[in-house]
Amino acid sequence: MNDKPQLTLQPMVHVRDMAATLAMLEVLGGVLIQESRDGDWAPVSIGGAEIGLLAHPANPDQGEGDVELSFESRTPLEQVEELARSAGVVVAQPTADEGFGRQLQLHTPDGLLLKINEIESDLITQGQPSLCWGRDAVLIGSRRCHSLHPAGQRPFLSRCRSA
Q1: Which residue has the higher pLDDT, 146 or 127?
Q2: pLDDT tens figures, 58-86
Q3: Distance between CA atoms of residues 121 and 61, nearest Å
Q4: Greater confidence, 27 or 102?
Q5: Containing H/E element for 82?
Q6: C-alpha distances in Å from residue 11, one per residue of 69, 128, 157
Q7: Which helix or strand (DSSP H or E) is residue 77 part of?
Q8: What is the distance in angstroms between the CA of the first residue and the CA of the last residue of the chain?
Q9: Nearest CA among 103, 93, 102, 104 for reference residue 120
Q10: What's the CA gap between 112 and 51, in Å, rounded?
Q11: Predicted TM-score (pTM) of this structure
């Protein structure tokens, strides 16, 4: 049995305009993987890696910067937290509920904030939740979508707003 946590690195980038950033990353080959229900968090697959976008400013009071290291854990966070504490790792914030699941925050010896997330699929949407695909504006959930690209092109990214 392997006692090491199973973690996947996910750098996080704080952005001012989520829709514009997603559109730019799509042009570069990025693919939206999922998004939190409130649209505040969206992981994007690009260049063989995954980055997470956060649609809010970094909170320097919590040790956040414009870019932060975040991991998705397949190991229950209680186990990761217990392992970290037993090794003397500084726990910045114990495992707590978040809008996407749960999160544990640790500090590296240099003071860098590491966030370890446990994603709960019922708290997020898969694929293109606030992005619309197709020729015409459509309604998805409570969001009315408008094309960013000329009609008739391949499936395209669209900007959505509340209906």
Answers
A1: 127
A2: 888 887 888 877 888 888 999 999 988 98
A3: 29
A4: 102
A5: helix 77-86
A6: 5, 21, 23
A7: helix 77-86
A8: 51
A9: 102
A10: 18
A11: 0.53
